[in-house]
Design a protein that fits this description.
The structure holds 2 protein chains of 2 kinds. Chain A has 3 helices and 7 strands. Chain B is globular and about 50 Å long. In chain B, strand 5 and strand 6 form a beta hairpin. Chain B has one domain: START domain (Alpha-D-Glucose-1,6-Bisphosphate, Chain A, domain 4, 2-Layer Sandwich). Chain B starts with 5 loop residues before the first strand and ends with a helix. By secondary structure, chain B is α+β, with helices and mostly antiparallel strands. Classes of the chains: A alpha+beta, B alpha+beta.
């Protein structure tokens, strides 16, 4: 029998982008834009992001390092306020094992001509797959990719 | 225009029940058993749809008897029979967001009894609710589970 355990964790990341809230929000709402920055490192291959951006809509992506486990991301949108807020829940699988379930809140606030983004993740890591530090670091990498995407537009 | 905000919190509650883990799990899994306790205090459930399985979605309209204005939209994310239930739910009132929660229910044997741990990670939206109020509601429901198991 699998040993069952849970570990609850919360982290928040704050970033400021030069683009206004409407542009940062659009980088989340539009599937072609989001596929440009929301994915693993380059050696994980091309994004296969699917996105149905509406309350109750689903999002999925999968990928992983060559020869390594496949990471599956499945999300459902819980609350959307255009240009201001996105709340979703998502689960992560490593191959066939569900390793975590999370509640993610992204807030977009005007900051001068730019945007202050606050991402808060409340997660439960399952059955010993405890990786809150790795998760936070992963999102840090995603926001670096988002910053580069916004600069190139 | 609504001033937008998000307040994050974590609520933890623990109960011991004089019943086997399988019966405590069934209080969540079986519609007839859940209908006995799935609303705080003296509030009423006006409509409820059950779909207890991973990926299943449930809608519940509830609230004070003369105005059951709240809707909980639940999605089951992880179910380990007799052991664990993880689900998300959003709460709205006439379409206005109140909160989104990620709730973990853990059920474990404790001598002749069963221990239940509930952890609710929640984002309260636009100042419409708070952790103290939510904790009171959840505590009321967990107490009702105890009453339904004793009956």
């Amino acid at each position: 029998m699998t040993e069952r355990s849970t570990k609850h964790a919360t982290f928040a990341i704050e970033r400021t982008f030069a683009a206004p809230p409407s542009r940062v929000f659009a980088a989340y709402a539009d599937v072609k834009s989001k596929a440009r920055w929301f994915g693993g490192p380059e050696d994980w291959g091309k994004s296969n992001l699917k996105l149905d951006f509406k309350v109750g809509g689903r999002e999925s992506e999968s990928g992983g390092p060559p020869g390594g486990p496949v990471h599956y991301y499945n999300a459902i949108y819980q609350d959307i306020v255009p240009d201001e807020r996105i709340v979703l829940t998502y689960e992560m699988h490593l191959d066939k094992t569900r390793i975590s379930v999370s509640l993610g809140t992204t807030e977009f606030k005007p900051a001068g001509a730019g945007t202050r983004l606050v991402y808060t993740e409340q997660a439960v890591f399952l059955d010993g797959h405890d990786d809150a530090g790795g998760r936070e670091q992963g999102f840090g990498g995603l926001f670096d990719q988002l910053a580069r995407f916004l600069e190139m537009q | 225009m609504t001033a937008r905000s998000a307040q994050h919190g974590t609520i933890r509650l623990e109960r011991r029940y004089k019943a086997a883990p399988a019966r405590v799990f069934a209080a969540w899994a079986e519609p007839k058993a859940r209908a006995k306790w799935d609303v705080p205090g003296r509030w009423v459930i006006a409509e409820q749809r059950f779909d207890f399985r991973e990926g299943g979605r449930e809608l519940k309209r509830f609230g004070p008897k003369d105005d059951p204005r709240f809707v909980a939209d639940t999605l089951y994310l992880d179910i380990v029979p007799d052991r664990r239930i993880v689900f998300s739910y959003s709460m709205t009132s006439r379409g206005e967001p109140i909160s989104v929660s990620l709730t973990t229910v853990e059920i474990m044997p404790d001598g002749q009894q069963t221990k239940l741990l509930l952890t609710e990670q929640v984002a309260f939206l636009d100042g419409k609710d708070n952790a103290a109020n939510r904790e009171e509601g959840l505590a009321s429901m967990l107490d009702k589970i105890g009453e339904s198991l004793a009956a």
